[in-house]
Structure formats: structure tokens, C-alpha cells
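Repro:
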Amino acid sequence: MKKITLILSFVAFAFTNTIFSNPVNPKTEKQPTKIPMEIHMGIGRALLGSGDVITTQMETELNLKLNKYITLGENVTFGKGGWYDYRFTNYIQINSNVFLSPFKNTGKGDFRIGTGMSYSNVTDVQIIEEQIISSNIKYTRSIVDNRNTLGLNIIVDYNRTLNNRFIIGGRLINQQYLNGDINTGIYLKCGIKL
């Protein structure tokens, strides 16, 4: 499943890059207009509502600013969490989002609201029995639940440009999935303009 997820993220990135690249026009010999791109990395905490599990999330996002109001974003998110020593949750998400900057995204600050689609692969492991047979042999019985689903993202984002290249920011996110999973989180982010 991890191979399929990595292939899907590569295809999404390649598709986005192909659509928004501007080749040189041979008639005018002009250089292409550069679409502003940014890479963001974030880390934060989230509540995976299907099992009320608090997780730590890490995301990597590529942003393309189409104009002074609209930005497209593709990201991959990894999450890990658990309850004490008997329940563990890991997940990976691939998200495609569209952001609206009501106050423009051309200044030092960029407040934006976004929405988009999300694909999620969640693996829950719950230990239901554990016995120590001898000093170095342990018997463990567990239940594994692996699920894939699609969902909708609702995002509130604020980014601040420190100079002409570096970015810091924060994000609030709520994700509703078709199977009933809900993921709500908060991130701190940093980024760089390409």
C-alpha cells in the first residue's frame, strides 16, 4: 500500500508540474512567466476522531500561486500516535487543496482559507492480550485494522514571509472522511520560496 501511496503522490506532483509549467513560445522567443512556488514543511498535533487518538503529524506541501488571490497546494502527511502501550495508529494522507487569500497573497502576510480532497490510509493496532512466557519470550495477540478512504479538507492558514525567501506560519485543519473518520489538527510550518 505504501508503494501505491508514493506512486499516487508522484503522479499528482508530476501532473501539477506539467499543467503549470510555461514553455518558451518559439514565435516570440520570450522567457516563460514564472509561477511562484513554495515548499512548506510542518509538524503538529491532531485528534483522529474515529478512535479519539492524539497523533503527531508531519507534512510536506508544494504551493503554486496562480494569482494574488488563489493558491494550489499538494501535500503528503504522515501521522503516528497511540494510547499508552496497547493501541497504536499510523496513517498517511495525500491532499490536493485550493486556497483563497481574501486579503491578497502578495504582501508579507498571507491569510488564506482552503478546501480540497484527501486520500487517507490508516492502520490501527490494538493489543488485546499479552503474556510473558519466560524472561525473553512474550506472547502478544492483537487486532489490526487497515482502512483507506476519501475525504474533504477545511483549512485555515497563515504564512508570514521573513525576508524575500523564508516563510513561517501556522495551520488549523479539519478533515471529514467518507468512512466516518475525522481528523482535526494544528501545525507550525516553515517554508522557502523557490
